[in-house]
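One such shown below:

_____
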Amino acid sequence: MAPLQSDSPPFHRYWQGQVWPRRRQIFLHRHILISVVVTVVVVLLCASQPVGRLQISSVAGAALGYAALSFGACVTGAVLALTLPSEERVRRLATSGRKDSDFSHYSDLVFNFTWSAMAQLILVLAVAFAYLLGGDTLVWPTNPLNSHIALLCIAVFTGAYSVIRLFSVLYTMSQVAAVIIADIARPAQLEADKSPAAGDAT
């Protein structure tokens, strides 16, 4: 992989160096399919259920609060992944990886958190556009325009994908915690295994 120019914008470096090489892993993942299914279901519910009578501004406000909390969770997960594992564990993860990938397991671990954080930021942008374009308009007004339906689908997909990415972060954090606990418990277990032998020798 060619090194990126240091004078390029940070987002461009992140996209070109981390996201684009993983494009198949991201955009062909089941998370995308699940988000599409959720989008179809939610839009159909908006068209036929009272939820469609809510104002866009009220829904956007709730989504903004969620995005703020979930972004914090993603950043916290990234910090834990960078700071808590033992040096030996980090070395093993950083020097191993999938056969079909140029990235190490450790790089994939950190990317899981950073990409999930990006999904929350994209949701914030979608919420901002919803405030600007929708305001007090109903989520599903009478005889909605095709453009309104298209924007609703984009917004719902963005929200669904961000929620799925949050669940991925929570699951990954539990795995990281299990690894850290195992690293801490291993020396104590080895010491306990040696104790009887030491006692027999005396």
